[in-house]
Amino acid sequence: QVQLVESGGGSVETGGSLRLSCVGSGLSFSSECVGWFRQSPKKEREGIAGINSHGWTKYIESVKGRFTISRDNAKNTTYLQMNDLKTEGSAMYYCAATPYSRCTNLLEKNDYDSWGQGTQVTVTS
Length: 125
Fold this sequence. Notes:
single chain, mainly beta, seven-stranded mixed sheet, 0% helix, 55% strand
């Protein structure tokens, strides 16, 4: 029972940066696995970065070295720092959470049961 709100999306040129934020309320965010997903009209929802309660992280290969997921448990907030953005990164970005006991794959959307409303990221050339 976690409510999530994303923010930080917007329009940026290729090579630019954005930092997305996901604020959780309800149950303790610190006990949850948290993932960032993206979805566009051309591609189904996919997990791009995840972090568990111990701080362990996982990324899809295409964003390694450019994106960083982190969390501030005192603020019940998870961040996704996105650097060197590319046009293929244009999508609706969603934050998701699931209890640690149900977190078997940080990038598997079907493992998550709480979702935010999404924040739009548009990368222009």
